């Protein structure tokens, strides 16, 4: 296992190749635009619709998924994970030829056996560790976000060099690309988004907001305290770890942090985290998500609606309107 930086990757490996970016959503638009700015020949594969119009407006050649897959040497699947297997079977697989590379930014479908590529193609992953919009924003600022790289299948003997060149085109080798496996990326990514980054964090923010509002404090103050300021605290941790954040906050806040943190995230919380990880490792979460999609997403849709109506969303929308400088 290694970390790779700019000097380990050679963009000329992609010089005579065409890359098809399939999907033009959060990751698709960012990866396609960064690659193009890095001199890579990119076409976009889509169905007719909103993304197609956007990709054309952004100056790309847009083809159907079938045409783009057949044209390209490297095919990066950036569709929502839940649709990838069907689109792969019907539109990508028929155009694959020996020596092509099939790329992913998340290992879900390969790791859980929903996509089984033929043996004569390379199968790899370049996964930026960042939401797509920041993959683009940080690149435009002259930097890059870190990434993960994994080779699942090396039919040509060149898979790692091609994947590394792709990662360089995204800007990831500026920040560091860590070599891993499809299993490790998939399980840690699902764990991170469920237990910490998305599920854990939104539950913590809502619980804090509700505690203050239910105790009679203003929703505006509760919003600033529990959501708005979180970004500023996270920015400090991002720049210099927990110690930089603790250097910047008051000693009173730091003492409160030491006294209270473990009362909020207790041994029971950690035991629940271990249980969440077991369910991911055993494929229970994947099965639940696949079945949820087959059933038309009843739970996903109901909870999405309920969450959109949470009072923190109402007060937040009102307060953010006044912050004209904020990237929305
Ligand atoms: N979001 C992120 O930041 C991250 C995502 N990833 C991974 O990247 C991959 C892409 O995720 P993400 O960028 O969030 O996806 P999005 O939901 O943002 O984008 C979906 C894109 O796929 C298109 N699409 C959907 N269905 C079809 C179809 N049947 N045929 C053709 N095009 C279709 C949509 O076009 P239309 O407008 O027509 O619907 C849209 O352009 C996933 O594997 C995900 O796990 C990894 C790291 C971070
Ligand atoms: C944290 C969510 C994420 O895993 C990401 C941006 O890396 C995702 O899949 O969107």
From TrEMBL:
<dbReference type="InterPro" id="IPR013023">
    <property type="entry name" value="KARI"/>
</dbReference>
<comment type="pathway">
    <text>Amino-acid biosynthesis; L-isoleucine biosynthesis; L-isoleucine from 2-oxobutanoate: step 2/4.</text>
</comment>
<feature type="binding site">
    <location>
        <position position="132"/>
    </location>
    <ligand>
        <name>NADP(+)</name>
    </ligand>
</feature>
<keyword id="KW-0521">NADP</keyword>
<feature type="binding site">
    <location>
        <position position="189"/>
    </location>
    <ligand>
        <name>Mg(2+) 1</name>
    </ligand>
</feature>
<feature type="binding site">
    <location>
        <position position="229"/>
    </location>
    <ligand>
        <name>Mg(2+) 2</name>
    </ligand>
</feature>
<dbReference type="InterPro" id="IPR013116">
    <property type="entry name" value="KARI_N"/>
</dbReference>
<feature type="binding site">
    <location>
        <position position="193"/>
    </location>
    <ligand>
        <name>Mg(2+) 1</name>
    </ligand>
</feature>
<dbReference type="GO" id="GO:0000287">
    <property type="term" value="F:magnesium ion binding"/>
</dbReference>
<feature type="domain" description="KARI N-terminal Rossmann">
    <location>
        <begin position="1"/>
        <end position="180"/>
    </location>
</feature>
<dbReference type="GO" id="GO:0009099">
    <property type="term" value="P:L-valine biosynthetic process"/>
</dbReference>
<feature type="binding site">
    <location>
        <position position="225"/>
    </location>
    <ligand>
        <name>Mg(2+) 2</name>
    </ligand>
</feature>
<dbReference type="Pfam" id="PF01450">
    <property type="entry name" value="KARI_C"/>
</dbReference>
<protein>
    <recommendedName>
        <fullName>Ketol-acid reductoisomerase (NADP(+))</fullName>
        <ecNumber>1.1.1.86</ecNumber>
    </recommendedName>
</protein>
<comment type="similarity">
    <text>Belongs to the ketol-acid reductoisomerase family.</text>
</comment>
<dbReference type="InterPro" id="IPR008927">
    <property type="entry name" value="6-PGluconate_DH-like_C_sf"/>
</dbReference>
<comment type="function">
    <text>Involved in the biosynthesis of branched-chain amino acids (BCAA). Catalyzes an alkyl-migration followed by a ketol-acid reduction of (S)-2-acetolactate (S2AL) to yield (R)-2,3-dihydroxy-isovalerate. In the isomerase reaction, S2AL is rearranged via a Mg-dependent methyl migration to produce 3-hydroxy-3-methyl-2-ketobutyrate (HMKB). In the reductase reaction, this 2-ketoacid undergoes a metal-dependent reduction by NADPH to yield (R)-2,3-dihydroxy-isovalerate.</text>
</comment>
<keyword id="KW-0479">Metal-binding</keyword>
<keyword id="KW-0560">Oxidoreductase</keyword>
<dbReference type="GO" id="GO:0005829">
    <property type="term" value="C:cytosol"/>
</dbReference>
<feature type="binding site">
    <location>
        <position position="51"/>
    </location>
    <ligand>
        <name>NADP(+)</name>
    </ligand>
</feature>
<keyword id="KW-0028">Amino-acid biosynthesis</keyword>
<dbReference type="Pfam" id="PF07991">
    <property type="entry name" value="KARI_N"/>
</dbReference>
<feature type="binding site">
    <location>
        <position position="47"/>
    </location>
    <ligand>
        <name>NADP(+)</name>
    </ligand>
</feature>
<dbReference type="InterPro" id="IPR000506">
    <property type="entry name" value="KARI_C"/>
</dbReference>
<feature type="binding site">
    <location>
        <begin position="24"/>
        <end position="27"/>
    </location>
    <ligand>
        <name>NADP(+)</name>
    </ligand>
</feature>
<dbReference type="InterPro" id="IPR014359">
    <property type="entry name" value="KARI_prok"/>
</dbReference>
<feature type="domain" description="KARI C-terminal knotted">
    <location>
        <begin position="181"/>
        <end position="326"/>
    </location>
</feature>
<comment type="pathway">
    <text>Amino-acid biosynthesis; L-valine biosynthesis; L-valine from pyruvate: step 2/4.</text>
</comment>
<dbReference type="GO" id="GO:0050661">
    <property type="term" value="F:NADP binding"/>
</dbReference>
<dbReference type="GO" id="GO:0004455">
    <property type="term" value="F:ketol-acid reductoisomerase activity"/>
</dbReference>
<keyword id="KW-0100">Branched-chain amino acid biosynthesis</keyword>
<keyword id="KW-0460">Magnesium</keyword>
<dbReference type="InterPro" id="IPR036291">
    <property type="entry name" value="NAD(P)-bd_dom_sf"/>
</dbReference>
<feature type="binding site">
    <location>
        <position position="189"/>
    </location>
    <ligand>
        <name>Mg(2+) 2</name>
    </ligand>
</feature>
<feature type="binding site">
    <location>
        <position position="250"/>
    </location>
    <ligand>
        <name>substrate</name>
    </ligand>
</feature>
<feature type="active site">
    <location>
        <position position="106"/>
    </location>
</feature>
<dbReference type="GO" id="GO:0009097">
    <property type="term" value="P:isoleucine biosynthetic process"/>
</dbReference>
